[in-house]
Amino acid sequence: MNPAVLQQSYDRFAARYDAAFIGQQRPKIVALASRLPDESPAVDLGCGTCLARRITGRAFIGLDRSRGMLGQGRGPRVQADLSRLPFADGSIAVALCVTALIDFLDPAPVARELARVLRPGGALAVSVLKHEDVDGLLRALDDAGLEVVERLDLAQDFGFVARRRQGGGGAKPADAGAADGGT
Ligand SMILES: C[S@@+](CC[C@H](N)C(=O)[O-])C[C@H]1O[C@@H](n2cnc3c(N)ncnc32)[C@H](O)[C@@H]1O
Question: Which residue from 118, 138, 140, 141 could staple onto 146, CB 3.0 to 4.6 Å apart?
Answer without folding.
Answer: 141
